[in-house]
Design goal:
Layout lengths: L1 E5 L6 E6 L7 E4 L6 E4 L24
Antiparallel strand pairs: 1-2, 3-4
The chain binds zinc ion (ZN).
């Protein structure tokens, strides 16, 4: 089953995607109005990983 992915501004049909076809973030520019639509995978179970912990180790400069 395909879902119609539409532009958020003018509702033009951007593309069709099957369930699970979007595995990561997608940016697609609408050909009609030029809006850059940012799509992300819409999974029903989104409250599973709610960002586990705030870990500041990334980019830390302290030894
Ligand atoms: Zn548009």
């Amino acid at each position: 089953m395909l879902n119609n992915i539409r532009c958020g501004t003018c509702s033009a049909l951007l593309f069709k995607a099957g369930q699970g076809a979007i595995a990561n973030d997608i940016e697609i520019k609408c050909r009609r109005c030029g809006t850059l639509n940012h799509l992300r995978p819409c999974e029903p179970l989104h409250d599973r990983q709610e960002r586990p912990k705030r870990n500041n180790s990334c980019g830390s400069t302290s030894p």
